[in-house]
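Researcher: I'd like a structural prediction for the single chain below. Treat it as a standalone chain; there are no partners to consider.
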Amino acid sequence: MSKHLLLLLPGLLLALGSAAQTPAQTIKPRLTNVTVYLNGSALEHQGQVTLAAGLNRLVVGNLSPRIDAQTLEVRLGEAAELLSVSDDDDEAPVPKLLNQTAADSLTRAEAELSIIEGELQGLQQEKAFLLANQTLPSGTQANWSAEVQKGSSLMRTRLPAIQRETERLKARQEVLNAQSKELRPRATETNLGSWQVLLVRAPRAVTVPLAMRYFVRTRILWLPRLDIRANATGREVEFVTHGLLRNGTGLLWQQVRLVLMRHAQGDDISRPELAPWELDFDGGDHIGEGRIDEFVVKGTAKGRPIEVSQGTRYEVPELVTLATGARRELTLPAVKLVGRPEYLAVPRVSEHVFLQSKVSGWEGLQLPDDAKIFHQGMYVGNTELNDRAFNDSLEVALGHDEQLVVGRAKLEDFSGNVPLSDKRRVRLTYELNVRNRHPETVRLRLLDQVPVSEEKEISVKVLETSGAQLDARSGKLTWLLTLPSGANQRLRFSFQVDYPKDKKVEIINHQVRISSPKFR
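Model: Treating it as a single chain, here is the predicted structure.
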């Protein structure tokens, strides 16, 4: 222990001893700010406190009963010095209930619940007793007819009565449980709420500001949901965030400034360390490859995020009043972004053409896992979102479009042996047809694919692509088409596959006949 600490410790102990003789001053700073995270709330109380010269013992009430004391931060004006913070029961006055009516109602509900629980147990035991005594005792065979008649009558009347009474009591039990859950926050609220005792030293009599901040860990208080609304063309896209807000802090919110955060308050913020990647024959404790993502973030990053009012933090413009345990539906201001409509067709998989809007400037938004999509004011479905996997543009699906028609036909289906070789060859040619029935020009992304080889003995050769972009690794073919109104376009691609004669490779679907493509 250092010399300085040894010198300070007696002074602090003396101050604490003197504080025990100092009269307590009870104050209740007003709750002014609530910041709601996905896993709890940060609360801030503000007020003024008048201090006498010397030591002052402040009993600060009106704090949340669910306070995490480890997160408590106390700030006083420069003219005062904070010596200690305590929640010792001996330091505070006895709190008084603020809502005696709610407390009495809760007491009556809990008493009735106790009675109902006892009655249910009694009915259960009576039913078990009747079912266990369905056989006649020995020695009653002479009067068996009368005994059986009495027993059957008792079973016939009493068992249904037990069932009806059990159902009635359980229904009442559910009602009382719901009432108790609603009453408990109001019935347990006191004039002090939770409290903390502050030992403060002031060089002179002075009035200083007091601020107390702390975190309350509760279940989800703010559950955001997202609606994406696009106009008919898909060029105007609105992101509307709304959700259910619940006051689970145990304190009344009376005209508080409310901030909504779109993430959880993390516990572990330590810097990760990269350990050596060691290889050995025994396995060992190394982490191997570590974390592997299911996606790769792509894009040119040429776009510049626009300023949006939401982001990770949104401050509700008006002051909020919300009772303890109460709920409120809250809608944030809509964020309007510009979309570039694009149609997508994958005729190998679906006969439908999908309209999507490629939205730029979305980077300032914190997106949930999914969203409801509305197009032209009508709900069209849900879509999954992953803001870590998007490119520069966020692609928002808006549903099917029947004004664009696609067709896929097989023009060539050749299968035979390769002369002077131990190989067999398959050659396929397909034709894609697209027709635009819109009154205006549209932009269409058309996708198909050629196979890719997973074996050295199987070779794939692309013969024709009609100008498509070919991703050699996946075999995906992409055409970007601009189709005037009433126009149709045909695109052809072909490939051949060579493989050993003694091996079987499933390429051709023999149930699909070669047919003439549409719109010839």
